[in-house]
Amino acid sequence: MEPLIQDASLDGLRSSCRRCDAELHRSAYEVRMSGTAAYYCLRCALMHRPMVRRSLVISLIVGTLLTAINQRNVLVQSGLPASLAWQVPLTYVVSYCVATLGAILNARSAGVELDHA
Ligand SMILES: [Zn+2]
Prior knowledge:
By secondary structure, this protein is an alpha+beta fold. It has one domain. The protein contains four helices and three strands. Strand 1 and strand 2 form a beta hairpin. Helix 3 runs antiparallel to helix 4. The chain starts with a helix and ends in a 7-residue tail after the last strand.
């Protein structure tokens, strides 16, 4: 745990995104990779592959559960009616967005004084 904190602090002192080197103005997003941490800008944090992969897995699980709970009767009785053609995919998209938003808000380092570094 000690190297994780030290590396993140050192990266914060740079006040730039470790991935694209963009300047971090108001907030940074802490991304953890194999025992270390780095600060990314929002765009790079949103494209961070492990987070995208995790959000996809969560959206598959949650989307399937929500679809089963909300549309079970319709799906069992009449298959996949056209009215559900947009609702079911939207359930997965919303689940992905919620999982990603939760991860991003959790990774956000608000109040980090990067501008003074
Ligand atoms: Zn970046």
